């Protein structure tokens, strides 16, 4: 019933920027919390950023100061603005709603 669709991924050079979007089929406020996770081959999914309905956020240490999580309630969309990208940021990124609903994932590759 609930659909989450990520977009905006691709290939960028180190130091570049990319903005991911997660379009939800219902209001993102209905979930209480939204988050981004990422996964690289051979590793478990890792937390990236979380946004609460209150507007509070938290970030993984590895992305603090570089990534920003935000939302646009009017268009049911969650965003992840990624700046100063590093090769270590290469991963499949997932949008998570309410801690239990997952998007299909989208590839982000940072390489020169």
Can you describe what's shown?
With 112 residues, this protein is mainly beta. It is built from no helices and 11 strands. Strands 2, 4, 5, 6, 9, 10 and 11 form a 7-stranded mixed β-sheet that branches. Strands 1-3-8-7 form a 4-stranded antiparallel β-sheet, with no helix packed on it. The chain starts with a strand and ends with a strand.
SSE topology:
Elements lengths: L3 E4 L2 E3 L5 E7 L8 E7 L6 E7 L4 E3 L7 E6 L4 E6 L8 E7 L3 E2 L3 E5 L2
Parallel strand pairs: 2-11
Antiparallel strand pairs: 1-3, 3-8, 4-5, 4-9, 5-6, 7-8, 9-10, 9-11
Which descriptors would you attach to this protein?
112 residues; mainly beta; seven-stranded mixed β-sheet; four-stranded antiparallel β-sheet; globular
Short description:
This protein has 112 residues and is mainly β.
Q: What coarse outline follows from CA principal-axis ratios?
A: globular
Number of helices: 0
On the 0-100 scale, what is the average pLDDT?
96
User: What structural class do the secondary elements suggest?
Assistant: mainly beta
Rg over CA atoms: 13 Å
Q: Share of helix among residues?
A: under 10%
Please give the number of β-strands.
Answer: 11
| First-to-last CA distance | 40 Å
Estimate what percentage of residues fall within beta strands.
over 45%
